[in-house]
Amino acid sequence: MGTKNFSFSLKKAERVPARPRIAALALLVAAFMSNACGSLRTREEIREEEAQSRVDGASRPSAPVTSSPVPSPATLPPASAPPSAPEVALSKDPPRIGVILGPGGMKAYAHVGVLKEMSRARLPVRHVVGLEWGAIVAGLYAIQGQANEAEWKAFKLRDDDVPGSGLLSKAIQRAKIASLGGFLSTAFAGQSIERAEVDFACPSYNVKTGKLGWWSRGPMKDGVAKCVAYPPYYADTDGWLAAPMAIEEASGYLRAKGANLIIYVDALAGGELLSGALIGEHYADYVLWAEARRQASRRQLPGVNVIIRVNTGPHGVTDYGGRRQMMEAGARAAQETINKLAVQYGF
Q1: Residue 151: which residues within 8 A CB-CB, separation 6 or more?
Q2: What does the radius of gyration of the chain's CA atoms come to, in whole angstroms?
Q3: Rounded CA separation 125/254 (Å)
Q4: d(Cα 229, Cα 257) in Å, to the nearest integer?
């Protein structure tokens, strides 16, 4: 079938005159060549066009220019780079120091020596809390923030202000805190807690409700009186007794006030608690003080950053005559630790 068609077509083609056919083909070829030659370029022309294209691309923006201002190099974002580890800025601000002066009766005079060392090293104490007799020293210091002033007023205590004072006393007749009223009135002289140079507070325990109370406003004399009463010296003051073991509560109070470096001064760390002559008559009191010492002797105290432990040697909680020696013991015990803090924080 295909062969017959081919033969037939060939025969028809043979009937077409040769010259017209050749002329027609020549015209078609000429038209094609004319159109193609119009679009053909030499190698030199192509190279010239490519070079011109590169020049035009560098001089002309690839996108339409808008009316928005072109940012200067200073405002352009930096070139992307691999992310680096974030730098931690070290605070140059000094810490807010809060000091807890622990209990100890006459041993609390060791706190005066510690405060004098802090003043010498220019440690900026912002808050101070006193436990039991530590409240007296803390209050005296808070008034003006001066350790020397606290020392001068603390040594105005007379032997007849303290019941049964002295190493040779065989018994202490427990008294009301009113017997200490003359000393407190002289030492604090109408000072209010709110007007103190250093923020002050002291805790006491209510024997009626079983709750801990904080004295941080009102007359300094009245607040301290509520926080000092403790065996063997004094009976409760209107139902309030000292809270010598409220270390965790004291550190929590200072943290809430904004203190971030808490220093606890432990005046019970070493030495006698009660002289041998007094232990027999005041055994129950001795047990209370032994427990207070045990609580403070823990390696870590809740919320406390630094502990200064003072060994007062043979001077116990009732040793009125050993106050000067205990103050000096406090200064010796604190010196190394406070010097380290001063170097660490650049005071």
Answers
A1: 112, 116, 327
A2: 47
A3: 12
A4: 26
- Least confident interval from 31-40, 154-163, 177-186, 294-303: 31-40
| Joined tokens for residue 66 | 């808008």
Q: Is 292 exposed, middle or buried (0-12, 13-18, 19+ CB in 10 A)?
A: buried
How far is Cα 232 from Cα 27, in angstroms, rounded to an integer?
137
**Does 207 score more than 70 pLDDT?**
yes
Cβ atoms of 285 and 277 closer than 8 Å: no
The Cα–Cα gap between 231 and 282 comes to 9
**Taken in order 324, 330, 332, 338, is the CA torsion positive or negative?**
negative
Report helix, strand or coil for 251. Answer: helix
CB 336 within 8 A of CB 114: no
Partners of residue 127 on adjacent β-strands:
98, 199
Residue 210 region by backbone torsions, left for phi larger than 0, else alpha for psi between -120 and 50, else beta:
left
Neighbours of 115 (CB within 10 A): 30
Helix 181-188 to helix 147-154 angle (10° resolution) is 150
Q: For residue range 104-115, what is the model confidence (pLDDT) as tens digits?
A: 999 999 999 999
Other beta carbons within 10 Å of 198? 19
Alpha helices by DSSP H, the chain: 2-14, 18-39, 43-59, 110-120, 134-144, 147-154, 181-188, 220-228, 247-256, 276-279, 283-296, 323-345
pTM of the predicted model as reported, rounded to 2 decimal places: 0.72
Element holding 85 (H helix, E strand) = none
